[in-house]
Write a structure and sequence with these properties.
Elements (H helix, E strand, L loop, with lengths): L2 E2 L3 H5 L4 E4 L14 E3 H14 L7 E2 L1 H4 L5 E3 L7 E4 L4 H8 L8 H5 L32 H13 L20 H5 L22 H10 L4 H4 L3 H16 L2 E4 L4 H10 L2 H12 L9 H10 L2 E4 L12
Parallel strand pairs: 1-4, 2-6
Antiparallel strand pairs: 3-5, 7-8
Helix pairs in contact: 6-12, 12-13
């Protein structure tokens, strides 16, 4: 990205609004979600260019800003709306809430229901049960765990895919200032900055950001979730490892480190695809024999049930 602001067409390429209802969609129902105020956008970009080091070399093009309204909705948003007026509301409700027992909300929709039909002091609860399936990965196959461990022998994890090249998540102090210019207006203060005189761990800095008196980090709509997700991925990725008997450690370690990364990569892919072991090449079979002498281990992930025990 070398020029700002982006054109409405570029922004609309990342947006999609799905509307289901009996009446035509009205942009006013979106409230201020996609509201655009041209002057505020320009003032903010000028401020970033003058004060934020990440924006110092970016060109500002006012002619692009002319494509936006002075105060209104994002141009082209109406074309990004997908409408469905054929679905029947009652049928959708019945389908989405079907179960062994009648949904409590159906009591409110019963045509012949009166106030006397509800016992005194009885409360109708409309909150449905929700949960997470398999938070401890008990249903994940052993092959998947082995494949994950093998992948960690090959290369570190790289995430945040947004362009032709991936943005590294580890040891990248520019990542969060780039994602959240309103939280890091000067482009400094990112995680794992090697220029700090005193090193600061990722999780400790995250806790500090959420505990300072400035509520911007705590009240941001996505910062806390992105941070927790990164912490969970790091625990899941970096703490999936091999354990081997002490008597076999020297021979297994020597043979395992002699296996080429290409063989491990092919073996990991075949394990993930659950291919037949008879179809493995000789090198892949030898690598698999080594893996049979070790056990895959996974650490407790923050936010899971195991982390609360």
């Amino acid at each position: 990205m070398s020029v700002l602001p982006r054109t409405p067409a570029d922004i609309n390429g990342f947006l999609s609004v799905v509307f289901i209802g009996p009446q035509p969609f009205d942009l006013k129902r979106m409230g201020t979600l996609f509201r655009v105020r041209k002057q505020k956008i320009w003032s903010f970009l000028v401020w970033l260019k003058n004060h934020n080091r990440l924006y110092a070399d970016i060109e500002l093009d006012f002619s692009v800003l002319d494509q936006y309204p002075a105060d209104g909705f994002l141009p082209g948003l109406r074309e990004r709306v997908v409408e469905d007026h054929e679905l029947d509301a009652q049928r959708v409700f019945s389908s989405e809430t079907s179960g062994f027992a009648t949904h409590p909300a159906e009591l409110l929709q019963a045509p012949n229901m009166s106030a006397s039909d509800v016992a005194d002091g009885e409360t109708i609860t409309l909150l449905e049960k929700m949960g997470v399936s398999d938070p401890e990965c008990d249903k994940v196959s052993g092959r998947t765990f082995v494949a994950s461990a093998v992948q960690n022998l090959i290369r570190p994890d790289i995430v945040v895919h947004h362009s032709a090249s991936a943005v590294p998540e580890y040891n990248n102090p520019r990542l969060f200032p780039g994602m959240y210019p309103t939280l890091y207006p000067y482009g400094i203060g990112g995680f794992e900055d090697k220029s700090r005189l005193t090193p600061l761990l990722f999780d400790r800095q995250a806790k500090y950001c959420l505990n300072i008196s400035d509520r911007a980090f705590r009240y941001h709509e996505s910062f806390i979730f992105v941070t927790l997700n990164m912490l969970q991925r790091r625990q899941a990725h970096l703490q999936t490892y091999f354990a081997v008997r002490k008597s076999n450690f020297d021979s297994v370690a020597r043979n395992l480190t002699s296996v080429s990364p290409d063989v491990l990569r092919r073996l990991a892919n075949r394990l993930e695809q659950e291919c037949k072991l008879s179809n493995l090449s000789t090198d892949e079979q030898n690598a698999l024999k080594l893996l049979r002498q070790v056990n895959t281990m996974s650490t407790r992930i923050p936010g899971s049930q195991a982390s609360k025990i």
